[in-house]
Amino acid sequence: MIFILDDEYFLMGNQIAHIPNQILNVETYFNDLNGYDYVKNLGVTRFLKVAKAKTRNGYCVIKIFQIVDQSLPYDQYKAQIQKIYSILHEKEVAPSPLKNCLPFQIVTKNDRSIILTRPYIKDNLFYRLQTRPYLTRIEKKWIAYQLLIALKHIHHENITHGDLKIENILLTSYNWILLSDFANFKPTFFAYEDPAEYYYYFNASQRNVCYLAPERFYDQTRFRSDINNDTFSTSFGKLGTPAMDIFSLGCILTELFTEQPLFTLTQMLDYRNDSYDPMPIVNKIADVDIRTMIASMIDRDPLKRLTAEQYLQEQTGKAFPSCFHTFLLPYVQKILKDFSPDYVIYKLHRDFSYIMSSLFTEASQNNENQTETDEEKHRESSQCLLILLSLALSCMRKLKHLHSRLVALELLRLMIPLIDDQIILDRILPYVNAMLHDSYHRVRADAIRTLVFAISSVKNINQENADLFSEYLFPTLSTPYVQEDCYVRSNLAKYLSVLAEHSLRFLEKTYLIEERNHTINNDYFKLYEEELKSVQTWMQGKFGDLIHGDNEDQNGQLAEAVCRSDLIRLCTFFGKRKTIEIICGHLTTLLSQPNWRLRATLFDSLVTVASYIGLESEVFIQPLLTQGLTDEEEFVVHRVLKALACFVRLSLLKRKTIYDFLRQVAPLVCHP
User: 467-522 pLDDT, tens per residue?
Assistant: First the structure.
């Protein structure tokens, strides 16, 4: 990130300096940086400008502070920043909770600027709260727990953050939080009557949200020099107190659980004077333990706020499931110690039984005589699997080896029965859908299997999922990645009837939801018919393509896979009239195929189709049976006889037709 001043004055810590005579563009400062290539500007503030840069080690964020007055103690602040990084970096050699911190790593000073750098992380907590799929309650608790862990350990090292806000909490794709932008170089106290300094330093996002503790605002009746002399210290971490960070954390947690800021600056100043009550916002949080904890964190009296360690001890087993402490945090830290996507997938798959026993043992204990609140806590323990699911999904697109990708899909199949339906639709399906474009055909084939398993596991369907198949899944299943490989298409043929059944189920359940909501009208009936026609048209075309195969399918393997599938589901999907027109019409062409296994399988599938159609099926099955009895392959004739016996038992043939077949079959009794 790059910061350039454009105001009349600025403060470094609690020191006053003058505005620079010349304001330079962000790109200008890259002339002083070797090994950094400018990528883009990340935002403009009155105090600083921020830029993204590229190095040989990846992307980073660069902050540049323009030096105007050489007499200010810049070296002191530089030493503080370097010491913060040194302490936290040393702790990260072991699998430590301090991996939840991302301090500035490099501090460079030249004649005209001070340059701060840290690794680039795409998302912060503010943007993540606005991004689909939205965080679940257990994920929010996991983030809150990590924040307390991070504060506990930086406070233990005598370090305070100084500018803890939702934008300074970076978030990885697997919901691991990182505290960034430690602000030891920003002032701690501000004049209550003049908020100019606050806006200058702490309103970078222009959201007008205040996360600072009320004791950081002082009356002008007390001399500013007294404030500075009381609090300023040359050692880092002394410009603020842990209680100030705890208050900021309370504001962040309120916004995390309610998605509503707790204070603007005006409200904070009123709260300082006991003329504003933030509890109506806090009370919107459903969890009573979270509410109690936040109410304590935002107490006006800093002496009444507990430490991060005390909150962890008090709320483990209450606001936070016990498995966070006993299993989840140590397990995730161990994985992050030797992090690589393939390693994570292998370890999660290998440890799956251990994970289940660790998460669900606690949830299954004391089932007798437990209150409704206790049941909710046990349910949360089982939901902790979602945190490991996020870790697995974040690794899936970065896997290098074929076997790793197959193991990842198997891991998803193990997790799917234990995950909520909406999580399957919003999170798992997009990743499985992406695997249908994989370069390995075995992965694409297994992705179809996983896709069908996921869809089959979804029981609760909402209105948003009505066009899931026609607009999302079917277009992917029609891409060259699926169509150009015979092995992948055979897997699609195997599960085609299951896809047909569930596409109709999704559509009909959406219709029932509309009916219950009393929103049925002529337009909706029209849309329903159009959607059903679209799905049936795709399924009809795909069924015909698979039955007739292509140049790569000379032996009719695709048609055989379709016939071996559960065709009764496909018949139910099309209805009786279209079953006769489409399914029977295509099946009759298979009797001329040279592959005798395909011809034998045909007669097995005829029983299923005819049992659905009823007596009307005699018209098309009679000539097929007659031709099959004269087949040159004995195994085919054997299947015809078995099918004929089934038709007789099901009363699908007229008596005259049975006598006709009896005359043809009787000579076969003499067959050796």
Answer: 889 889 999 999 988 888 889 999 999 999 999 999 999 988 887 766 666 555 56
Taking a C-beta distance cutoff of 8 angstroms, is the pair 323, 358 a contact?
yes
Q: Write out the residue limits of the CATH 1.10.510.10 domain(s) in the chain.
A: 123-318
List, as one string, the DSSP characters of 273-315: TT----HHHHTT-S-HHHHHHHHHHT-SSGGGSPPHHHHHHHH
Strands 177-180 and 49-55 turn out to be: unpaired
- The tokens describing 367, both together, are 């089932």
With the CA atoms of 148, 151, 152 and 153 taken in that order, what torsion angle do they form, in degrees rounded to the nearest 10?
130
Q: What residues does CATH 3.30.200.20 cover in the chain?
A: 1-120
Q: What tokens were used for 9?
A: 């004055």
The CATH class given to the 1-120 domain equals: alpha beta
- Let me know: does 141 contact 379? Beta carbons within 8 Å: no
List C-alpha distances in Å: 497 to 392, 436, 510, 542, 562. Answer: 30, 19, 20, 11, 8
Query: CA 255, CA 264: separation in Å to the nearest integer?
Result: 12
- Give CA separation, 22 vs 4, 8, 73, in Å: 10, 12, 22
Count Cβ neighbours within 10 Å for each residue of 478-516 and write b for 16 or more, e otherwise: eeebbeebbebbbbbbbbbbbbbbbbbbbbebbbeebee
Contact 192, 198 (CB under 8 A): no
Sign of CA dihedral 476, 481, 483, 488: negative
Closest C-alpha among 166, 248, 172 to residue 213: 248
Provide the 10 A C-beta neighbour count for residue 625.
Answer: 21
* 8 Å CB contact between 274 and 300: yes
Q: How confident is the model over 554-612, as pLDDT tens digits?
A: 678 888 899 988 899 999 999 999 999 999 989 988 888 888 999 999 998 999 999 99
Please say whether the beta carbons of 323 and 362 come within 8 A: yes
Q: What is the CA radius of gyration of the chain?
A: 34
CB 555 within 8 A of CB 568: no
CA 278 to chain centre: 32
| Beta carbons of 294 and 250 less than 8 angstroms apart | yes
In order, the DSSP letters of 467-510 are: THIIIIIHHHHTSHHHHT-HHHHHHHHHHHHHHHHHHHHHHHHH
Contact in structure between 447 and 409 (CB atoms under 8 Å): yes
Q: What is the CATH number of domain 123-318?
A: 1.10.510.10
Look at residues 246, 175, 180, 160 and name the one whose alpha carbon lies nearest to residue 211. Answer: 246
Q: What are phi and psi of 428, to 5 degrees?
A: -75, -45
Question: 618-628 vs 634-649: helix axis angle to the nearest 10?
Answer: 150
Q: Who contacts 527 (Cβ-Cβ below 8 Å, separation ≥6)?
A: none
- Catalytic positions, please? 163
CB 408 within 8 A of CB 392: yes
Opening angle at CA 185, ends 184 and 188, nearest 5: 70
Indicate the DSSP class of residue 203. -
Note every long-range contact of 229-236, with CB atoms under 8 Å and residues 24 or more positions apart, other chains counting. 231/188, 231/189, 232/13, 232/14, 234/76, 235/80, 236/80, 236/81, 236/83, 236/84, 236/159, 236/184
Highest-confidence segment of 249-253, 319-323, 589-593: 249-253
- Count CB-CB contacts under 10 A for residue 600: 22
CA-to-CA separations, 642 to 653, 665, 667, in angstroms, rounded: 14, 12, 16
| Whether the Cβ atoms of residue 194 and residue 222 lie closer than 8 Å to each other | no
Q: How far apart are CA 560 and CA 565, in angstroms?
A: 9
Burial of 428 (0-12, 13-18, 19+ CB in 10 A): buried
pTM score: 0.88
